[in-house]
Amino acid sequence: MTSKKLLFFMLLVSFASKAQLADSIFLNENSFHKSVYNQLWESPVFFTNQQFSNFTQTEISFSQKDLNLKRVQTALKTNVYNFSTQGLFNVKPKLKIFGDFNVSKVFEQDLGYNFTSQRTENQNVLNPNYFYAPKKGDWEIQNYALKAGLSYQFENNILFGITSFYDNGRYFRKTDPRPEIEASNFGGKIHAGYNLKNHSLFFRGGVSQKTEKNSIIYMDDTQNAPVYPETFTRFSNGYGRSMFNSNYTNNIFRTIDNNFGGGYQFQNQKNSISIDYNYSRSMENFYGRSANGRVYIDEDLISYKYKVISNVVNANYFLQGNSIDYKLGFSFDQTQGDNYSVIEKGQNFRMNLDKFSFRSGIFKKENNRVLYSFEVNGNYADHKYVDLLGSTNKQLTALEIQTSFNRDVIYDKKNKLNFEVALTYYKALDEKLLYTAISTSSNSFAENVIFPDHAFDITSKLLSTANAQYFLKLPKSKTLRIFANYSTLFALDKEYLYYAEEFDPNYSTNFKVGIAVIY
Amino acid sequence: MKKILLLLTAVIALSSCNKDDDFGGGGSLQPVAFTVNLKYDTATFGGTVVEGGSVSLTNTSTGDVYTFESNATGAANFASLLPGTYNVTATKTLTSSEFTTTFGYAPTTETVTFNGSQEQVIVNANVTSTTIELKSARIGDLVIKQIYYAGSHAQQGAVFRDQFIEIYNNSNEVIFADGLCVAQLYGRTSTSSASFALSNGQFDWSQSIGMTSGASANTNYVYADYVLRIPGTGQQYPIQPGESIVIAQSALNHKAPLVDNTGEPLVVQNPNLTVDLSTADFEAYIGDFRVSLGEDVYKYDIQNPAVTDLDIAYWGRTGHASSNKDMILDNLGRDSFVIFRGDNVASYPNFSDPSVTNEVATTKYFMQIPNSVIIDGVDLQHYNPSSQRPKMLSSEIDASFINCDNAYNSQSVMRKTKATVDGRIILEDTNNSANDFIKTTANPRGFAQ
Questions:
Q1: By three-state DSSP, how is residue B179 classified?
Q2: What one-character-per-residue DSSP string does A48-68 give?
Q3: Are strands B308-309 and B282-283 parallel, antiparallel or unpaired?
């Protein structure tokens, strides 16, 4: 990223940092409005006429996850120290700028079978094409991420928006084998449309580029031998197919994502209905070493590819009343991933994920006090992962229902305490896992990753969460926010026994605490 | 505004381009049928098909090994093989009577072994067969019995100082070692493609500057980094049947505390990890040669005056000496070794490797040794299958390769015991190191059970 781009991001964020509290919806206060804030980033031109209060929030937080009930390629314990500042500023009635800046330091313990920057905490299967060794190790990660956005309606009713981001991360493991990843990801979208009275129509297009430079070293290189299977580095090419790959010492992953879409919105004084569509096509290329041992971006050095195409449709309704807000949303996300081996001139892995989601909620307020907020959300997801050479065929249909309730239990001129409880129920409705050992070299991965992960995926679970937020009015229109949340994830049945008798069903916990200043 | 709309249109147009050719039109990778056709060497045996030949396919990406026998038409049919790149080896042993029946004349030995190999064979839906010619393995009376290249633990052992090579008399007659040469060969350490490499990744020596041998530069010769020769008048160093000679890098008891050439003590914390080479028959002492070049004696090239030094038959072209400071074997296993005898080894030509396009003062040159003079040879291999290198030896010398489990693990590769006749141990010798050797704890003059 050039220094000019960085300066641009910083300027946007600092603009937002000078915002003053004003009127209408505070997007940063209640979890009810979080989805609205997310939509603002996706379709900013839909919100040029929406009344959001200016805000700036600077926050530090600490979270600790003890994930006993988890998939294999996720750390057992994770500590995160985070600093973030975000804001939204109405420069003019129809011109908004908004930005995020986030810095985090992450310490992970006991992570095996994974030398990537991905984790299987929120995805069932890692993207194909990655290095791994079974041995668990501790990771240290540092990330910073910048986001900036703008939405504007010109005098002639032309709508214009821009969103952009830049992320940078460094990941490294502290025991042999020692992968180190330097990641950068930047991109942007341009949104343009037209507003005619209550109707808005827009199109958007964007591009992003993610680059990960990877290296794996050993302090004791003799550990990288088949005779030590725990530390021997292998390459996963699909879901079950494991290979040798000499490029572990040095390689590059580069992903180019092109996307476009459009949407329509009807909006009057209180109601807003919108529908939008987004198409995304990303291509991840794996670059190995050249004959002289160097790695660089060159078509001739690509040995593996992974293409992901997704089509997403969102429909949202939002009612902004004087004392009550409603929201209702539906999404359908159809994603397909295909790998390709340039060396072998063919494909062995395909991922299909069809996901239907709905969001609904009601938000009752009195002046600035939240009398109650109640949400019901759900996901219905149909997964398929096939590795023809692995040889694995995993299918999973799962339902997830989430309910949450929060209210301000204490409210006066200076103090406010909001308390929230949430429950998420997960159940696998249908599943299948066929694994045929056609290669002796892949059995270990299947036994230690594919089967335990499927055991996790088919087990019914309940996630219970409690959140508390305390707001204290400070002089000069500042507000102090102290928050804490705690969640636990329990297994509700013993379905896991069918695929992994050794599976440990003990619960997972997640604790987060933080303090923020809103000004 | 027009510019913005134009930009947006361009982005959309770019994104919506037809990308069906992303994957070059490749289809699904699925197990495929593959056939290996075997025939005897066309030049010598007329290309007769090989029935009952054993064919092994090793997937270079997974290490999976598939073995099958050829049928009456010489075809070994693998019904379901994962697409990928394979190393193929094939072997067939004929008894004297089988040989006579097949070829119409009697061989000079009780059995005749034929070997063939191909590296980096692509198997996919479009490539469904390959043909391998089996050549009769050159069975020598002297064989390389043991190569201890892995060395021992860097802190607790002797690292690489305790390396040795053992040569064994596998015949029933006394053989004199005088004049026998041991060569460490030179080749590429990666199978990656390059303009100066063959399809298996090995150097295409026909491209070397000054080479006149054409394609036979790759098939009829090997190229040596250095060559050491056993001295003697011709009948000075006999090797009795069933006996061996040990050639040490440094003929010392590495289990005991030593002092290097700079006066620094060499402490071995765990003597069990290393070996006693004080009774070795020969040692490679390069010190005098280095002094003649104006270089210091390598600090670990510690001479034992009680053990005979090897002669240096070749240590690089004059003025372009090899950078090796001693007979140091690659601990990782990327060497190949041959033993041979030649009438006038000093007259063998030498060439730079074919990656060299402009000869300069630092260019290294490698001695060209004809396969015809080689008595035995062994291709070693890196212990990490992700770092495999191409073979240097042709299939009639060594059809495959062998490696230890690791570096510095006190292991050697040792030839298997085949039989014991009248108290004399006969070692396995099919010129197929994967079959003939095992990896075991290094043991000078020991035998593999």
A1: coil
A2: SSS-B--EEEEEEEEEEEE-S
A3: parallel
Distance CA A382, CA A334 (A): 10
DSSP assignment of A238-307, as one string?
SSS-EE--GGGGSEEEEEEEEEEEEEEEEE-SSEEEEEEEEEEEEEEEEE---TTS-----GGGEEEEEE
In whole angstroms, give the CA distance from residue B281 to residue B283.
7
* Chain B residues with beta carbon closer than 8 angstroms to that of A338: 23
CA distance B390 to chain A (A): 14
Q: What angle do CA B194, B197, B202 make, to 5 degrees?
A: 125
Looking at chain A from residue 125 to 154, which residues have their Cβ under 8 Å from any Cβ of chain B?
154
Interatomic CA distance for residues A19 and A28, integer angstroms:
13
Residue among A369, A274, A425 at smallest CA distance from A30: A369
Tokens 């992450």 sit on residue = A106
Q: Give the whole-angstrom CA distance, residue B89 versus residue B91.
A: 7
- The Cα A206–Cα A309 span in angstroms is 14
CB pairs < 8 Å spanning A and B: 144
B259 CA to chain A: closest CA distance, Å? 26
CB contact under 8 A, A348 and B125: no
Tell me if residue B43 falls in helix, strand or coil. helix
CB within 8 Å of A139: residues ≥ 6 apart: A75, A106, A107, A108, A111, A171, A172, A173, A174
pLDDT at position A22, please?
A: 34
Round to whole Å and give the CA distance between B202 and A48.
Answer: 65
* Span A58-71, pLDDT tens digits: 999 999 999 999 99
Give the residue from chain B lying closest to A158, CA to CA: B1
Determine the straight-line distance between the first and last CA of chain B, rounded to whole angstroms. Answer: 84
Q: Are A347 and B1 a contacting pair at CB < 8 A? A: no
CB distance B123 to B93 below 8 Å = no
Supply the CATH classification number for the domain B32-136. 2.60.40.10
pLDDT (tens digit per residue) in A358-414? 999 999 999 889 999 999 999 999 999 999 887 899 999 999 999 999 999 999 989
Percent above pLDDT 90 for chain A: 79
- Cβ of B23 and A260 within 8 Å? no
Describe the strand order of the beta sheet including B65-69 as a list of residue ranges: B65-69, B54-59, B84-95, B111-123, B129-136, B32-40, B75-81
Q: State the CB neighbour count (10 A cutoff) for residue A453.
A: 26
Domain ranges of chain B: 32-136, 142-441
Nearest CB to A258: which of B14, B24, B195? B14
Q: How far is A73 from chain B (nearest CA, A)?
A: 22
Count Cβ neighbours within 10 Å for each residue of B327-366 and write b for 16 or more, e otherwise: bbbbbbbbbbbbbbebeebeebebbbbbbbeeeeeeebbb
Q: Is the pLDDT of residue B346 over 80?
A: yes
Q: How confident is the model at residue A24 (pLDDT cuts 50, 70, 90)?
A: low
Among partner residues B1, B24, B385, which is closest to A158 by beta-carbon distance?
Answer: B1
Please name each of the domains of chain A with its CATH number: 3-518 (2.40.160)
Secondary structure E strands in B230-322: 238-239, 244-248, 258-259, 265-266, 282-283, 308-309, 311-314, 316-317, 320-321
Per residue in A186-229, pLDDT tens? Answer: 999 999 999 998 999 999 999 999 999 999 999 998 899 999 99
- Asked whether A347 and A380 are in contact (CB, 8 A), the reply is no
Contact check, Cβ <8 Å, A347/B30: no
Instruction: Give the span between the Cα atoms of A424 and A489, in whole angstroms.
Output: 9
Using CB atoms, pick whichever of B8, B82, B125 lies closest to residue A192.
Answer: B8
d(CA A293, CA A475): 62
Name residue A360's amino acid.
S
- A197 to chain B, closest Cα gap in Å: 20
